[in-house]
Amino acid sequence: MSAFALDDLFGGGNRLPGPARLLRTAAGSVPPSGLVMLGIVSVQLGAGFAKELFATLPPSAVVFLRIAAGALILGAVARPRLRGMTWRDWAVGLGFGATLALMNLSFYEALSRLPLGVAVAIEFLGPLGVAVAASRRRLDLLWVALAGAGVALLAPWGGQASTNWLGIAFALLAGVCWAAYILLAAAAGSRFPGTTGLSFAMVVAALAIAPVGVVTGGADLLQPHLLLIGLGVGLLSSVIPYSLELQALRRMPKHVFGILMSVEPGVAALIGVLLLGEVLHVVQWVAIACIVAASLGSTRTASRT
Questions:
Q1: Distance between CA atoms of 138 and 144, rounded to whole angstroms?
Q2: For the EamA domain, which residue ranges apply (predicted)?
Q3: Average of pLDDT values for 254-266?
């Protein structure tokens, strides 16, 4: 995923305000692997708190709160310049934003029907597919088979009440969108300076999801405590992890970063147990382990290639 750092937000150097300078210094004292793990935990905590909101708001309204919060923060600190954009820039930016909106909406719809760890594991097939496509070695067939076995074990035909077909379909759609997100993020990075591409995409995503989110959320969206939680979800799910990820990428090889990110489904499952009380079956843990192993294997293969 795309990322931005505190230096990018505040201009870097001595111009950083006191709290930002302290935060940057603190991040610099943490090993890059620790930053990656903190980012992963932050993302999944954000998803966990978002799922808690489903008792009050439908998933589409929660998605709107999250994306709107991220768009406001990014728009304030990395405002994109529309003047001078070519039609190709507009096409990439609009496609990036639409993909971001659909990815989050489909993931939250999956999250409302599946345990957190299961939803994240299935969604992870998206970046796994990108990694396999980039490698093109025969060994990749093993990772595909392993990931497929994981998804098969997560299917509800085994009598698992905590999974259902519609939730799996939404999670798979989120994975497809994540794969497209990776490709569009790279294209946006080559056309937009700094993090303005991500900022532009977040604004587009907020505008795209607003009609559905406002209609389904209604007057509940105006409740101050829900707005505050939505802001917290936006920070935990976007701003904080993106900052930590870029700080880590500046200090470690990309393939090591990819290997560390592969444990995200396992972290999601643990947070689901601890935060949401989602106790998984043994078969579900085995399935998540298969997908994590496939992601680890494909990342190592791609790094050798």
A1: 10
A2: 166-297
A3: 80
Helix axes 165-191, 125-135, angle to 10 degrees: 60
In this structure, which amino acid lies at residue 159? G
pLDDT tens string 267-296:
999 999 999 998 888 988 999 999 888 888
Vertex 80: Cα angle to 79 and 84 (nearest 5): 145
SS3 call for 301:
helix
Looking at the chain, how many residues does it have? 305
Q: Which two tokens stand for residue 264?
A: 């995200």
What is the CA angle 180-183-189, rounded to 5? Answer: 130
pTM: 0.81
CA atoms within 13 A on the CB side of 38: 18
For the beta carbon of residue 304, count every other beta carbon within 10 angstroms: 9
Sorted by where each begins, the domain ranges of the chain are 34-304
Q: Which residues contact 275 (CB under 8 A, 6 or more apart)?
A: 45, 48, 49
